[in-house]
Amino acid sequence: MKGKAIIFFGILLMISAIVIFDLSIRQSNVSASVVTADVADVVPTTMLESEVFSLQDLAYEFKELESIGSEKTLADYYKNRAYDGAPPRIPHPLLNEKGIGGKSCLQCHSNGGYVDRFKAFAPITPHPDFLNCNQCHVPKKTNNLFVASDFKRSAPKHIGSGVLDGSPPPIPHDFQVRGSCLSCHGAPSAAKEIRVNHPERVNCLQCHAPTNNRQITWERKSTEEEGGME
Amino acid sequence: MPIKSYIIIPQLDQKQSLMDDIAKMEGCEVHPAENKEVLVLVTDVETESEDKLLISQIESNKNIKHISLVSGYE
Amino acid sequence: MNEQIEDKDLSRRQFLRMAARASAIATAAVMFPGIVFAEEQERMIEKLGAIDVKWTKTPCRFCGVGCGLKVGISDGKAVAVKGDPNSSVNKGLCCVKGYHSILALYGNDRLTKPLIRKNGKLVESTMEEALDLVASKLRNTIAESGKDSVSIYGSGQWTIPDGYVASKLFKGAIGTNNVEANARLCMASAVTGFLSSFGLDEPMGCYEDIDHADVFVLWGNNMAEMHPVLFSRILDNRLKRSVKIIDLATRTTRTSHAADKSILFNPQTDLAIANAICYEIVKNRWVNTSFVEKHCVLKEGKTNIGYGLEENFQFNDEAKSIDFETYETFLEDYSPEKVAAYSGVSAKDIKYLASLYGNPNNKVMSLWCMGPNQHTRGTWINNLIYNIHLLTGKISTPGNSPFSLTGQPSACGTVREVGTLTHKLPHGVVMNEKDREMAAEIWKVPVENIPSKPTHHTVSMFRALDRGDIRFMWIQVTNPMVTMPHLNRYRNGAKKDDRFIVVSDVYPTPTTDIADVVLPSAMWIEREGMYGNSERRTQHFNQLLQPPGEAMSDTWQLIEVARRLGFKEQFPWDESTHIEEIWKEYSRFHVGKKHGMAPYEVLKSQAGAQWPYVEGKETKWRYHGKYDPACKGDTFDFYGKPDGKAWIWARPYEPAPEIPDSDYPFWLCTGRVLEHWHTGSMTRRVPILHQAVPKSYVELNPEDAKRLDIRNGDQVKLISRRGEIVMDASVDQRGKPVSGHVFVPFFDESYLINELTLDAYCPISKQPDYKKCAVRIEKI
Question: Distance (Å, rounded) from C-alpha C678 to C-alpha C685?
């Protein structure tokens, strides 16, 4: 179908538009500069551009592991947290109740790998710089509740909602505390539905646009916006 | 029936007047960004020649600093 | 997706147009992050399958750190939380309690209707009837037994308007100083410490000090669990620029494991260690002489000051000036070698600590919370930590910061700033005529209404309830039937026949169990309000949700009762704007460079503002002319004291009132765990938090456990002179007490550890010591 082919071409165009557009801005007499927004000074926890590329050393390894990977589903993923975006619970017994970061959790969760004891790949943390893991992640010691809860979780986000058939799906979540794409979407521990088949293309934002992007910490400002240079 | 979309950066402080100009042209649909000096333009005309004419008209507007094609269907 | 759109009967052409527009908008989003395409984008996102969630800022409901949250509201319910990246407090990161805070709103047993005790049983009623009853009981009790027979007891969980209205009603309108708050059990020593050393309450520094300091000394402060967000900020600094963390504590905790050095000391000897540090600083000539000469004076107070265990115990400190030689002579008793003999800390470690403070190149931050505050010499140990910073001049500048942390979201904002304590007024103290006049004028009451004498501090107030001197008590947003030390005594007192107890809360608790009237409260973001955190930051939150059933904010409950008592003129506000009106009235108390508060509009628009808020600017560091516009000159000015000088206090070591002996050989220390907050009435209703720590336990040292043949999980009995309790043993789990010590978290209402604790308190601050009493252990 001719139409579709052209739409695909359109997507290509869309990507190149970013590049061309950027170049054309640079070539004109208005210099573009990547400036750090005020927020960036106080926000170590939201995504930084560099975080997108974290774990890229492991990307080819992830690619090779593509066929084995875990059997974890998105349903398992959501079951382990109170709402979409909540810190997940620790689903296994703690090796050590006292430990902090490097000496305990990060042994397995910084680079992942297969753990025979749990017959699973260890999920990789998207924020290895936060060492006080138990600040947010806690284990489950009982199935009982103190009092039943009336909290209603809302439906999880849809996935794969590309605008066009075959177009790259946009990113439905923000990047706070989860700026490293590959840790949840590339590693073999990722849930099946959200695991990509192309972890080696590490520049994720090239094709996947954020839909809820108000948390990104940098913005492009032309000098004109700042008061004009001419 | 060519349908195309563009991103436009207007000249300083000309976002509104540029929007008004383009909105008057047949086959144009403008969507301003709320918080940035950026417009998204969708053109929808019957023939290729109309399309060429329309885009040359738009490009001649002095209030445009940059215009760039994003996607197209012909 | 294609099918979905075609289902909606979009023509092919419309579809193509939409697709073209969508790709342009998506491209723009990549190039101009943060770009918003009004309703167009919203509509598209909807089509893309995202849920319609509205995010609004609020401070966290729990601890005194005061993290900024963004709460996601969808369809009238709170559905998600993220850290607010615009908040300088937490910069977008929360702890597990904050992330799950919204679940605390949705416990299945929320109080939605008022309850009135009829024939011994609490039965459902209407708000109208319940408020009428509260007002008539108040009026009758005052008529029968006098103004001082009625009282209100709140907490640092009161919003600022709650506390303000409570103080205005009781102190101004009714005319009794029987106003107290749970913060007395939590922050009082910090207050008296600040007042005696600097003349004004609350820290000079702020959280930003963490990003400047080179050394962090944690005085009895398990920050990794109790203030995890700030602790992570310290760890983050250590990753980036190698700072040092010293954990000075009586128990090995997660904080000790994370610290560069863990130093364990015997309970109560922190007094001696602080003096030994000063001894070393003086001996090694590390004293910042010019600072001390220009900006400090030396004082001594009374000694052998008692422990407040006697009924009607009274104490007033007296300050006498001393010279530096006298202070040096005083320090003679605290050489590291002498102190090592009874503190359990080696002379080498004391000298190391002193050298960290003494090194002129180090910026040092001391942090503490309940360790030094819940202490029978709480005021003294607060003074002594300030001494170290004053002797070395390490204060009031970025990174040089003695920092007293708080435990409740508005301990500072409400209890300390509004002044919901018996001796306090929103500005100044009841003893001061000018302060009373100011309050009377703003409150529109006759000045004679406000009594010039303080009445009861918290422990004394509950003793008065037991005796019958107080017959009516209104308890809001706290749970004293779990938190009072020597609990049996005060519970029995509160249950006596002719006592009338009103409790405003959101869930049933052991305190609502003893109530005659229970009023259902609107919680947190179910109403509008403000909290004030530990770094002088006032944070506003909007009403984002409808309260369940007839639940009503504590502020409005008080206003309703005040009006029923005839105080319509003093409580005239309209329900839709009352918070704004109250804020504007309250701010008048703090006008000026020393305590100016940010305007309502500013608080509404940003993630908090630090006072003194002067000419549109927040003050990060007080008492230094470079940062604080209230200072005279461009250097230090401790303007809380008339001569602008801070006080260095000679405060000795004195032992604890109850020390382990052969009958009760173990020290008992109580405290919190990361997952639960205060008495757990909220956090235990959050599934993930309850399931992480389902019940309380007693932590034992592994060697003691072995000797007593106790294994992890075994049931043991703890017995003190006041009560006993059976609970699970926890051996070498999260925390490890020193041999001869045990530790019990107090969050669990099924294991009331406060039936064992001692109601001894600091004679200056009147704050009880929950960290030290003697117990015996028996295996079951």
Answer: 13
| Number of other CB atoms surrounding residue A218 within 10 Å | 16
Interface contact flag, A17 B70, Cβ < 8 Å: yes
The type of residue at A42 is V
Q: CA dist C368 to C222, C248, C374, C534, C619, Å? A: 9, 10, 11, 12, 22
Q: Would you call A125 an interface residue with chain C, using a CB distance cutoff of 8 Å?
A: no
| CB pairs < 8 Å spanning B and C | 68
Contacting A residues, span 98-117, partner chain C, CB-CB under 8 Å? 98-101, 103
* Contact criterion met (CB < 8 Å) for C35 and B44: no
Pairwise pLDDT comparison (C11 vs C631), residue with the higher score = C631
Three-state DSSP class for C668?
Answer: strand
Amino acid at A77: Y
**3-class secondary-structure state, position C512:** helix
Write the ipTM: 0.93
Residue B38 Cα, gap to closest chain C Cα (Å): 8
Query: A96 vs A104, A148, A161, C254, CA distance in Å?
Result: 7, 30, 41, 11
Instruction: Output the pTM of the full model.
Output: 0.83
Burial-class residue C455 by CB neighbours within 10 Å (0-12, 13-18, 19+).
buried
**The two structure tokens encoding residue C557:** 């409950």
* Strand pairing class (A120-121; A218-222): unpaired
- Res. A143 pLDDT band, cuts 50 70 90: confident
Query: Min CA distance, A110 vs chain C (Å)?
Result: 16
Judged by a CB distance cut-off of 8 A, whether residue A9 touches chain B is yes
Active-site residue list of C = 97, 186-187, 370, 407-408
CB contact under 8 A, B66 and A24: yes
Nearest CA-CA distance, residue C20 and chain B, Å: 5
Chain C interface, best mutation among A146, A157, A205, by max C CB count within 10 A: A146
Reported as a single tens digit per residue, the pLDDT across C487-508 is 999 999 999 989 999 999 999 9
Amino acid making up residue C632: K
Q: What is the dihedral of CA B23, B25, B26, B27, to 10 degrees?
A: -70
Q: Could you tell me if A213 lies within 8 Å of chain B, comparing CB atoms?
A: no
From the list A133, A137, A113, the residue with the least C-alpha distance to A123 is: A113
Residue C366: is its pLDDT beyond 80?
Answer: yes
- Per-residue pLDDT at C154 exceeds 80: yes
Give C680-734 pLDDT, tens digit per residue. 999 999 999 999 999 999 999 999 999 999 999 999 999 999 999 999 999 999 9
Q: Give me the mean pLDDT over the C735-753 stretch.
A: 96
Helix or strand run (H / E) with residue C77 = strand C77-83
Phi/psi at C622 (nearest 5 deg)? -95, 160
What's the rounded Cα separation, in Å, for the pair C63 and C160? 15
Residue of chain A whose Cα is closest to the Cα of C735:
A98
Looking at this protein, which amino acid is placed at residue B54?
L
Q: Does B53 touch chain C (CB under 8 A)?
A: no
> Phi and psi for A113 in degrees, rounded to 5?
115, 165
Q: Strand, coil or helix: what is A126?
A: coil
